[in-house]
Amino acid sequence: MMQTVKLSKSLSWEQVAAVANGARLELAPDAVERIAHGRAIVDALVARGIKGYGINTGVGALCDVIVDRDQQQALSHNILMSHACGVGAPLGRVETRAIMAAQINNFAHGASGVRPEIVNALIALLNADCIPVVPSRGSVGYLTHGATIGLVLIGHGHAMHDGVRITGAQACARVGMEPLQLQAKEGLSLVNGTPCATGMACIALWRLSGLLDWADLAAAMTAENLGCQMAAFSPKALGLRKSDGLQKVGETLRTYLQDSPMLAASAGKRTQDPLSVRSVPHIHGAARDVLDDVIATVTRELESVTDNPAVLGNPETPEVHSQAHAVGAALGLSMDNLGVAVAQLAAISERRIDRMVNPLVSGLPAFLVPESGVCSGYMIAQYTAVSLVSENRRLAAPASLDGGITSALQEDMLTHATPAAWKVLTILDNLELVLGIELLAAAQAYDLHGDDVKPAVRTGKFHGDIRKSVPPYRDDRPMQNDFDAIRAFMKANVINQEID
């Protein structure tokens, strides 16, 4: 049965990720009530002619141009048309669904003032998996993505349904509704706030949570193949440094490598291992600590109103507040920080790969093939990892400092939260590939050790599981196929359950 997420006070990042991956979304009665209340306030503002940004004024540098009541519907419609100017390849289904879930969550706080029909239409599209086609590039913040989603609600733009690209009008028909005619403020609310960055941030958190577990496993398998000194991972040694992430990684490594015959044979052969092995708890642990910090930021964002203006009070005493809550400075900084942490995870993984393929330090056949010279083995796979790590280094440059000036000096401070979140997803793609290469190399290294010395029980089990999906490599097929196979293996398995 398909999972259903019910939105009451606020969605969690895990719930946004669940909806992004196909769960249904429903509004709890209290959320429905807040949305209706917020709309009643907007209607009162319109009726009384109380000046409100984007309600009865223009937007951006046109914020002081008064828009008469009979033109306010046209204003909302025109905002979508003019702001839908994104470019580039479309966002993926998961990313777009995440943005829509975060958008609905923002409206459900009741301070945006959109009609319930707007929210119900977005939910209908989500639950029918009829997803707007949203260009991924061209936004310094949030405007183009939100506008393109909004187009479908009014019968314009395009959506994907059952693998087929259809028009916005067809999408409305598929979910049993007529294209909506936007009312005052709704055009601005549809393009406003931080749902784009927040939704993609939730996907980044979900993906990294899983990849951290794979990183710990890959590191354990590599460390075992290289005969690491377990004393560096002891509770007494690691207890000297205060870090929840470090302690968790240390415990995980000890669990994976418990009673390893391979490590028993290598105990005491070195005073200490190279940093790419010895500092795994510190670097993987630091990434886990960053993840926890970013989770706190994203949680605050989901619990916040990020619309401008916000409407408060009641229909008898309506209030409209212009502010800057749509500015995602905290998200931009957090996503930039997360991107650096993810890039560092890939960097240390590549360093471990290099140690396994390099016969000068590995104690194994060169490039992990017995027929060295005739076969190149994992030589060029390590090149690929280097290339991906280098790309991550470029992508990890901070987006939040890019700046820029838009709208005739009115919007003269930009924090680029959406681009910051978007590039983290690319860095995560690269991390997944690098970790996959490390897992393949570690499995190959186990093969070369032979049956004389056995690995630990848990790492040995994963070696066997990998071999069920990917056979040993002997330059007998394009290695790209193995990369695809290991990524499929990683996506199909949740490994943290294996060490409970």
Structure description:
With 500 residues, the chain is mostly helical. The protein folds into 2 domains: 189 residues, Fumarase/aspartase (N-terminal domain) (Fumarase C, Chain B, domain 1, Orthogonal Bundle); 299 residues, Fumarase C, Chain A, domain 2, CATH 1.20.200.10. Helices cover 56% and strands 7% of the residues. It is built from 20 helices and 9 strands. It has a 3-stranded antiparallel β-sheet. Strand 1, helix 1 and strand 2 form a beta-alpha-beta unit.
Task: Tell me the span between the first and last alpha carbons.
Answer: 27 Å
Number of discrete helical segments: 20
CATH top level label of the largest domain:
Mainly Alpha
User: Any idea what the shape is?
Assistant: elongated
| CATH architecture level-2 label of the largest domain | Up-down Bundle
- Nearest-angstrom radius of gyration? 26 Å
Tell me the name of the CATH homologous superfamily of the largest domain. Answer: Fumarase/aspartase (Central domain)
What is the percent of helical residues? 55-70%
List low-pLDDT spans. Answer: none
Order of secondary-structure elements: EHEHHEHHEEHEEHHHHHHHHEEHHHHHH
Main sheet: which strands, in order across?
A: 4-6-7
- The strand count comes to 9
CATH topology of the largest domain, by name, is Fumarase C, Chain A, domain 2
Structural class: mainly alpha
Q: Taking all residues together, what is the mean pLDDT? A: 92
Strand content: 5-15%
Give a short account of the largest sheet.
Answer: 3 strands, antiparallel
Number of domains: 2
